[in-house]
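Hello,

I think I submitted the adenosine-5'-triphosphate job twice by accident. Can you confirm which output corresponds to this input? Input:
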Amino acid sequence: MSNEINSSNFIRNIIIEDLDSGKHNKIITRFPPEPNGYLHIGHAKSIVLNSGLAEEFKGKFNLRFDDTNPTKEDTEYVESIKEDVKWLGGNWDEIFFASNYFDTMYEKAILLIKKGLAYVCDLTSEEMREYRGTLTEPGKESPYRNRTVEENLDLLERMRKGEFKDGEKVLRAKIDMASPNINFRDPIIYRIAHAEHHNTKDKWCIYPMYDFAHPIEDAIEGITHSICTLEFEDHRPLYDWIVKECEMENVPRQIEFARLNMTNTVMSKRKLKQLVDEGIVDGWDDPRMPTISGLRRRGYTPESIRNFCNAIGVAKSNSLVDSQMLEYFIREDLQLKASSAMAVMKPLKLVITNYPEGETEMLEIENNAKDESKGKRLVPFSRELYIEQEDFMEVPVKKYFRLFPGNEVRLKGAYFVKCTDVIKNENGEVVEIHCTYDPETKSGSGFKGRKVKATIHWVDAKAAKSAEFRLFEPLILDDVEENEGKHFLEQINPNSLKVLQGFIEPTAVENAKSQDKFQFIRNGFFTVDSKYTTDEKLVFNRIVSLKSSFRL
Ligand code: ATP
Ligand code: MG
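Support: Only one job matched these inputs. Its output is below.
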């Protein structure tokens, strides 16, 4: 992955120090998703950071599925995560599953029991909550805390064999019920769950908890820098305790950074799953979703996402990033990559009454105004065209320079046309406009006779292909004051999707395939939708509009 993490960040500095001091001669990082949903843009930040550091310091980067919770995990998620990480350019050196370490984890649990550092507890979860105490009050010791080593070994073994029901017993670390750090108050390290696991199937009915499993996973893989988000800061002492007391050979170091939060965006797999399950979106890859697969379908490029992740940087305190910043980076990237074309999204028929009937000429138009090397294409032009409804006004407002009766404009890449007539239906709506053209004014002919104040785009009515255009607004309205404090499902933008049926010039999209990127003049950057496009009809997603007031 070509990352430009040139800007100094505190994690990078730690790594430099560790390499300079000889603490490590090679770093290993990892991205450890739980396969309980699709990845989102927040995960991209972690992938770009971890893989970028490994690449910069010639270390290794692992993809590890943190699959210790059988009830929520699924192979569908495993596959989607692999695809998304690969697509982003997060080239992993090795791929691991935490569930392949269950034997080692179980042995470590036995080791803790033997050292008098773990016990089987029969308190209900409610009782356990009561015993835990609060931030200001110490907890109370469980009555099961002083079971003998033999009894604990026997009970854990029987838990593993399936003799108890879910929730009947747990294994807890025996640390300190009075610790000011609540994570130290005898945290649960194993629980019973009679559920089939996507990888280990029915081999286990007890599963390790995150706080116990994660440090062991990191240590087994020789992870040197275990980068996670800020909410785990208070868990770090426990992380270190597990590594030490489980007598792990490698000692990884946990480093926390601020998670990415964005305006107008929900950033949690649980909430995103709810949007999918309740049919508010058409799947995890709905182009309005902040998932990697959604952004891909929307038309984002991996480069734009990586550039965004590098630009937001790595910090130690939580903040909110303006979602327009992500749009800025895709615009930058597509400026050069997308070829331009003319598409009309809200068509209005324009008839050139003095243009010969039945004749079509091919006009040469450049593919990318910013890049000549992209060449030119031939665009058919004839007597009947479509233009945008908004490019005509029967009664023009002030400073309106586009078409109105008596006014002349340039048709992009073609001729000047002057509006002579307006045709209406029985409801008085404009259905067609009539113009005359001036053959002298052909684009590229060097005509200097007179000037017009506007250029409008068009497509040839006969040759054009019909197409569907899907325009998006943010799915979540969170910047409106009245929405504050509301549940996210109450903040859904009812106008987040607008579907228009229009036309597109034929040549530019002749061999268009899913994911191809276009700049439709004036209308924005678009990509061919991978889900709804058929052999008969191209469906385009608007990636982003052409302009924004947002500045970096
Ligand atoms: P979510 O809350 O969305 O379910 P998670 O943290 O539970 O996310 P994991 O699959 O456990 O999801 O995350 C894998 C990795 O991605 C973790 O190292 C986590 O810290 C990181 N990560 C998750 N969300 C973000 C975010 N918003 N910004 C940066 N990193 C993130
Ligand atoms: Mg999680």
